[in-house]
Write a structure and sequence with these properties.
The protein has 113 residues and is α+β, with helices and mostly antiparallel strands. It has a single domain, classed as Arc Repressor Mutant, subunit A (Orthogonal Bundle), CATH 1.10.10.10. Helices cover 50% and strands 15% of the residues. It is built from 4 helices and 3 strands; from the N terminus they run αβααββα. It has a 3-stranded antiparallel sheet. α1 crosses α2, α1 packs across α3 and α2 crosses α3.
Length: 113
């Protein structure tokens, strides 16, 4: 991911949530639960899928259709996995933020400033 593309904060959270899940592959509802439980973000499933679609169009995640299940009326789940480019994009964002924390004089400080 080059400097010309922007990785929004919510997209970062979605990538990190996806990476935290078993085998780094999941569908929207699983990601939604991680976002709620770990990041305190109670978002709708369509919001998660919208972010996943943007990430897929940027080449940061890929998707495939899983097995159809009776619980879903015979429909298949769309499963997502983070690509190497997604991990690299997260690393670039982290480095940029660490640099800016240094520039802003806040690196190494506690959050009670």
């Amino acid at each position: 991911m080059g400097r010309s593309e922007h990785l929004a904060a919510f997209e970062q959270l979605v990538l990190l949530a996806l990476l935290s899940l078993e085998e780094n592959e999941a569908y929207g509802m699983n990601i939604r639960h991680v976002l709620r439980d770990q990041a305190g973000r109670d978002v709708s499933v369509p919001t998660v899928y919208s972010a996943l679609d943007r990430l897929e169009s940027k080449g940061l995640v890929n998707s495939r259709l899983g097995q159809a299940t009776p619980e879903r009326g015979g429909r298949a789940k769309k499963l997502f996995r983070v690509e190497a480019a997604g991990v690299q994009a997260l690393r670039e964002v982290r480095q940029t933020l660490e640099n800016m924390w240094q520039v802003g004089g806040l690196a190494g400080e506690s959050s009670d400033r």
